[in-house]
From TrEMBL:
GO biological process: L-lyxose metabolic process; rhamnose catabolic process
Organism whose genome encodes this protein: Kribbella pittospori
Keywords: Isomerase, Manganese, Metal-binding
Stated name of the protein: L-rhamnose isomerase
InterPro entries: L-rhamnose_isomerase, Rhamnose_iso-rel, Xyl_isomerase-like_sf
EC number: 5.3.1.14
GO molecular function, one term: metal ion binding
Top-rank taxon: Bacteria
Signal sequence interval, chain numbering: none
Keyword Cytoplasm attributed: no
Chain's gene name: rhaI
Length: 388
């Protein structure tokens, strides 16, 4: 196995973008629980995100969701983030909470609905121009509930046209990342249900269009690391939305349900060059903290990603390649498991200290008094945008 000292230069390249919506109240369709100190404004979400970066050194940017995070002055918002050591990152569009989009947005049969959805994305690009954001992330709720409800094929044509219009509005340094999800809210057919469909569309668009892989958006048992390997091989994996799932789109803390899966994903990321200094692969969280405290939930999440990345970096790739070439099934599996079973937490703690970070970011944050402070300062926190 490699030593910890050998992997730190690569570990240094890891940065995880946090979502603004993780700091708002969220829940299920049964109940949204409020948390004392929940942000009331996007600025307060940025304040909370800054705490995650301050204690972990891992989360230098925060993703926005439009219109949840709409403001009058994005340049000022940018400065606000910079003053707190953060960048504004990916801009997420939202065409799933408006009555107009009941029968689809970018795929809608009604041209006026489609135009409204396209215009929303063009407005997102305008925002990106002000925030300096590189990525426009599109997740569509579009789909149908009953066989015969829609012309499946026509909707693919319509989607391609809508995406092309949006893509044409992007600047040379900007990208479009298209997320897929196998079901929900549509239950019969979803217009972008899988990585293949996303791949087909982004390939048609051009080099600056890529797939976004949300780890919670697959059927149970799906081999996600295979998808990672394939998309990296094709140069088309643009971004991750990390989270954990037990059942469906659970949006739980990444690495909580299945740390081994996260490890396997990171092994393929590293194998495919996704952690190299010149890689443009974005690591983002897409999570909601329904019952746990939000900032600690985010701290735990970025630390989980760091931990599994460190284990994946420890993997002795040379030995693995040899065992694979010799068809030594058990040796190959052993080599992969050796790195996975290595507890990297003590070495990560010492390494953090060498960088001026707390050895234990979670306890340092909890002892800082920040949670108590926001609980007394903030009254009437906002919902993340989800739930009833
Ligand atoms: C809906 O499933 C979703 O969770 C998608 O994963 C998006 O990335 C996210 O909402 C935010 O729009
Ligand atoms: Mn997502
Ligand atoms: Mn999701």
């Amino acid at each position: 196995m490699r030593t910890f000292a050998e992997i730190t230069p690569q570990l240094e390249n890891l940065a995880v973008e946090v979502p603004s919506w993780a700091y708002g109240n969220s829940g299920t369709r049964f109940k949204v629980f409020s948390t004392p100190g929940t942000p009331r404004t996007v600025q307060e979400k940025i304040d909370d995100a800054a705490q995650v970066h301050l204690h972990t050194g891992l989360a230098p940017s925060v993703a926005l969701h439009i219109p949840w995070d709409s403001v009058d002055d994005y340049a000022a918002l940018c400065r606000y983030a910079e003053d707190r050591g953060l960048r504004l990152g990916t801009v997420n569009s939202n065409t799933f909470q408006d009555d107009t989009y009941k029968f689809g947005s970018l795929t809608a049969a009604d041209p006026s609905v489609r135009q409204k959805a396209i215009d929303h994305h063009l407005a997102c690009v305008d925002i990106m121009n002000e925030t300096g954001s590189r990525d426009l992330k599109i997740w569509l709720a579009d789909g149908s509930n009953y066989p015969g409800q829609n012309d499946l094929r026509q909707r693919q044509e319509t989607l391609a046209e809508s995406l092309a219009t949006i893509y044409a509005a992007l600047g040379d340094e900007q990208r479009l990342v298209l997320e897929y999800k196998f079901f929900e809210p549509a239950f019969y057919a979803t217009d972008v249900p899988d990585w293949g469909t996303s791949y087909v569309h982004v390939s048609e668009l051009g080099d600056r269009a890529k797939v976004c892989l949300d780890t919670g958006h697959h059927a149970p048992g799906t081999n996600i690391e295979f998808i990672v390997a394939q998309l990296l091989r094709l140069g088309k994996l643009g971004a991750f939305d990390f989270n954990s799932r037990f059942y469906a789109d659970d949006d739980l803390i990444v690495g909580a349900a299945d740390p081994f899966q996260l490890y396997r994903i990171m092994v393929e990321v590293i194998r495919g060059g996704g952690l190299a200094p010149d890689s443009d692969l974005a690591f983002m969280l897409d999570q909601c903290h329904n019952i746990e405290d939000k900032i600690p939930g985010q701290i735990r999440s970025v630390l989980n990603v760091q931990e599994m990345t460190a284990r994946a970096l420890l993997l002795d790739r040379e030995a693995l390649t040899k065992a694979q070439a010799a068809n030594d099934v058990l040796a190959a599996n052993d080599i992969l498991m050796d790195a996975f079973y290595t507890d990297v937490r003590p070495e990560l703690a010492s390494w953090r200290q060498t960088k001026g970070l707390p050895a234990d970011p979670m306890s340092t944050f909890l002892e800082s008094g920040y949670l108590q402070q926001i609980a007394s300062d903030r009254v009437g926190g906002q919902q993340a945008g989800w739930g009833a």
